[in-house]
């Protein structure tokens, strides 16, 4: 799902990767690819894994490059795994280059979509360096999503 909105859909899954350079190279050639196990909106959390995991990519990267190694592992371990390409153009492999306030709103909107789809009350956000800005903007995400921050 793109951060631009619209109904959740499954983008084509790329192969699992064992390292970042291989994942990055694949994502350049296949900019719409997502990691295996990501964005299954029919996934329902269970008692062992009650919160969906939202993987947040870093600056000039995309969900496939950042998470192609980890998403399949998390899914195999029983987690509902989600991710988005945000903070940049809808097309192409380079994301998280825009205004961080806009990015925070996009992540917040995506979290709301995940919560509505899964019936969960909270998600676990996992990020890379620029995605770490979510820690700084978590109150913005919480306010905009009308949920209280932990």
UniProtKB/TrEMBL annotation:
Region called Disordered, residue ranges? 1-21
Task: Report the superkingdom from the record.
Answer: Bacteria
Q: Which GO terms describe its biological process?
A: lipid catabolic process
Q: Which InterPro entries match?
A: AB_hydrolase_fold (IPR029058), Lipase_EstA/Esterase_EstB (IPR002918)
* Gene3D superfamilies in the cross-refs: alpha/beta hydrolase
Cite the GO molecular-function annotations of the record: hydrolase activity
Please provide an example of a Pfam family that matches this protein in its UniProt record. Answer: Lipase_2
What are the boundaries of the signal sequence? none
The residue stretches assigned to a coiled coil in this entry are: none
Please report the name of this protein according to its UniProt entry: Putative lipase
Q: Which organism does this record belong to?
A: Rhodococcus opacus (strain B4)
> What is this organism's lineage?
Bacteria, Bacillati, Actinomycetota, Actinomycetes, Mycobacteriales
